[in-house]
Each structure stands twice: as structure tokens, then as C-alpha cells.
């Protein structure tokens, strides 16, 4: 299968690397020229829980037009640039190309469908964790389940094919019949953890050790749960606050991606996480003041990277 991965950062390189190792033709598409050149010259280095090796049978490109159409396009840019990146990737999207997104945040499916058309997108969530170290080099930091599904919940042949391909690459994957539930269930974890770590500089485990941050986590999660329920979303866990706190404990030493973005002065996914809860809350008539404050604070932090000492 010819696979293109749009956004070959931490996660795109991980999925692309594992799929290439299992014998697929994989193209990594990225705007970062140094990274692309390093992969083409020296291969992709993956370190971490699945071992340290260099994958050579993988190709990378900044010019999407050079690779032709793909059977599968996996979107792994940050959700801040989904629309623009998918528009630029049009040359890769043929009439039969299946598009898969495992990005965090709300709205990615809709943005991709706007460019590629309805019925083209598979979506889901992954518990794998990866960190980009430098050009051509990532660390596979954690592994867990991946669930993917059709937007209408049907179990189709193309869904089963992609699930089989991911499993053959060592990415444990199952088909799902309710991607909204999966996406919201993961969103709510990110709602509780990401912004708080980005604002305080604390690691995941630390935010539940202090009353101030633990209280805010509970309030932010509870608001998001009300919005999810108003939209008829059934979550994957019974007690959302307890679940998010469990995730904090299990990932106690992690610096959440939003904290890493702030430390590296990069744009965060705040608008697609806490900001999305605020927007969806407005549509449902549900107040979300805590998520509004978290969104406002992270937005100001990222807008003022250049004017602070
Ligand atoms: P990342 O920042 O490491 O990688 C994004 C890549 O996209 C970068 O290499 C960047 O150069 C590239 N890019 C930016 N604009 C582009 C464009 N227009 N066209 C092509 N490439 C472009 O991000 P990541 O950590 O891999 O996260 C990707 C998505 O996966 C996010 O939604 C994130 O929340 C989600 N996610 C991340 C993890 C993780 O452990 N890192 C885990 C689960 C989900």
C-alpha cells in the first residue's frame, strides 16, 4: 500500500516509520526541509520502547506533487494547521485515497472533509506517545491502543483494511463504531491536563498534587462533560474526573504536549481543545467559564512569546 503521512513530526514519523518497517511504501510529507533532507540522506531514527534503529526504506518530501496519489493519507499535522496542510496536499489525494486522522482536538474531520469531500475520512484516537528530538530523529515514548472508525459508524472493508495494516505494523488497532465518543473522551483528558500544565509549567502528575490546580482540573472537565452530554455523546468512562486524574497519575512524569509547545514557543492546540469546549458550549447554551479562562490565558501566553523576557 502506498501511504503518505502529512506532518512528519513526532507522531507522523512514528506511524510512518512503523508502516515502512512492515513493508509498505511510505512517504513522509513535511514543510521542514532539514528534517526531510536528513531522512532521505540517512534514514529515520526511532529510539525508545520499540528499540533503537534507523529505518532506511522510507522517503520524505516537501513537494507533495512529486509523489503522485496515495492509497492512504494519514494526517498528523497539529490541528492548528489542518486546513492549510490538507489543501496543500491535494495532489496526493486521488479519487480512491482514504484519509485517516488521529490528531487531537475537535474539528479535524470537518476541516479535512471540506477539502476532500464527505465520506473520505476515517478518524480515531491513539494512545501512542512520541517526541521529536531533532531532524530525522524521534523517541517512541509510550504505546497503547489505537481505535479508528468511519464517520457514520459503519464497519467497512476499507476500515478493516487499514486496521489490519496498522496491526501488521505493530500498532495495536481496533475498528470503532462511534468515533465521536472516542474523540470527545480523549478531548476531555486533554481539556483537564494540557492547558493547566502549559500555564503552570507543572508535569502531569503534579497538577493533581496541588489544591488550586486540582480544583481547576475538576471544573474544566465537568464543564466539558456537560457539553458532551448535551450533544448526546456517550463517554468511554463512567467518572470523567476520576479518569482524568488516573491519566495524570499514569503519566506523572510527562510534560504534556501543550507545555512542551509553550516551552518551545510554538503555537499550541488550545483553540481546538479548551477553546472548542467554549465554542460547543455556546452552541448548546452551556456556560464554560473555566475553559474560557484557560483558553484566554494560554492564548495570551502564545501571543506574547516575543515580548516577554
Ligand atoms: P509535531 O509538532 O511533532 O509534528 C507536526 C509536524 O507537522 C511538524 O514536523 C511540522 O513541521 C509539520 N507541519 C506543519 N505544518 C505543515 C504543513 N502545512 N504541511 C506539512 N507538514 C506540516 O506534532 P505531533 O506531536 O506529532 O502531533 C501531531 C498530532 O497528533 C497533534 O494533533 C497531537 O495533538 C496529536 N498527538 C500527539 C501525540 C504525541 O505523543 N506527540 C500523541 C497523540 C496524539
Keywords:
309 residues, alpha/beta, Rossmann fold, N-(1-d-carboxylethyl)-l-norvaline Dehydrogenase, domain 2, 2 domains, eight-stranded mixed beta sheet, four-stranded mixed beta sheet, 11 helices, 20% strand, binds nicotinamide-adenine-dinucleotide
Descriptive account of the structure:
The protein is of the alpha/beta class and 309 residues long. It has two domains: 2-177, Rossmann fold (3-Layer(aba) Sandwich), CATH 3.40.50; 181-304, Orthogonal Bundle (N-(1-d-carboxylethyl)-l-norvaline Dehydrogenase, domain 2), CATH 1.10.1040. The protein has eleven helices and twelve strands. The chain has helices spanning 10-21, 33-42, 82-88, 108-116, 157-168, 179-200, 211-230, 240-250, 257-263, 274-284, 289-303; strands at 2-6, 25-29, 44-48, 53-55, 59-61, 70-75, 93-101, 121-126, 129-134, 137-142, 146-150, 173-175. The strands form two sheets. It has an eight-stranded mixed beta sheet with strand order 5-2-1-6-7-8-11-12, with helices on both faces. Strands 4-3-10-9 form a four-stranded mixed beta sheet. Strand 7, helix 4 (108-116) and strand 8 (121-126) form a beta-alpha-beta unit. The longest helix is centred in the middle third of the chain and has 22 residues, at 179-200. The chain is globular, with a radius of gyration of 19 Å. It binds nicotinamide-adenine-dinucleotide. Residues 6-12, 29-32, 76-79, 81, 84-85, 88, 103-104, 126, 129-130, 132, 257, 269 line the site of nicotinamide-adenine-dinucleotide.
Amino acid at each position: 500500500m502506498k501511504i503518505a503521512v502529512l506532518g512528519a513530526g513526532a507522531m507522523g514519523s512514528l506511524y510512518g516509520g512503523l508502516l515502512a518497517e512492515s513493508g509498505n511504501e511510505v512517504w513522509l510529507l513535511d514543510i521542514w526541509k532539514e528534517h526531510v533532507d536528513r531522512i532521505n540522506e540517512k534514514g529515520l531514527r526511532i529510539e525508545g520502547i520499540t528499540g533503537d534503529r534507523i529505518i532506511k526504506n522510507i522517503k520524505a518530501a516537501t513537494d507533495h506533487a512529486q509523489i503522485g496519489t496515495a492509497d492512504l493519507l494519514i494526517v498528523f499535522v497539529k490541528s492548528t494547521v489542518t486546513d492549510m496542510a490538507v489543501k496543500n496536499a491535494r495532489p496526493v489525494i486521488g479519487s480512491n485515497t482514504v484519509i485517516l486522522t488521529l490528531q487531537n482536538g475537535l474539528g479535524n474531520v470537518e476541516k479535512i472533509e471540506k477539502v476532500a469531500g464527505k465520506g473520505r475520512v476515517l478518524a480515531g484516537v491513539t494512545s501512542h506517545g512520541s517526541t521529536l528530538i531533532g531532524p530525522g530523529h524521534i523517541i517512541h515514548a509510550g504505546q497503547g491502543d489505537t481505535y479508528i472508525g468511519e464517520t457514520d459508524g459503519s464497519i467497512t472493508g476499507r476500515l478493516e483494511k487499514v486496521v489490519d495494516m496498522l496491526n501488521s505494523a505493530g500498532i495495536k488497532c481496533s475498528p470503532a463504531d462511534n468515533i465521536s465518543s472516542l474523540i470527545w473522551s480523549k478531548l476531555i483528558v486533554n481539556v483537564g491536563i494540557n492547558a493547566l500544565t502549559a500555564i503552570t509549567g507543572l508535569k502531569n502528575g503534579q497538577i493533581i498534587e496541588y489544591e488550586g490546580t486540582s480544583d481547576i482540573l475538576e471544573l474544566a472537565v465537568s464543564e466539558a462533560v456537560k457539553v458532551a452530554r448535551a450533544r448526546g455523546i456517550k463517554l468511554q468512562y463512567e467518572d470523567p474526573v476520576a479518569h482524568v486524574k488516573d491519566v495524570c497519575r499514569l503519566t506523572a512524569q510527562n510534560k504534556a504536549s501543550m507545555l512542551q509547545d509553550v516551552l518551545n514557543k510554538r503555537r499550541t492546540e488550545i483553540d481546538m481543545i479548551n477553546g472548542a469546549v467554549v465554542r460547543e458550549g455556546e452552541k448548546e447554551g452551556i456556560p464554560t467559564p473555566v475553559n474560557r479562562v484557560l483558553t484566554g490565558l494560554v492564548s495570551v501566553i502564545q501571543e506574547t512569546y516575543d515580548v516577554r523576557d
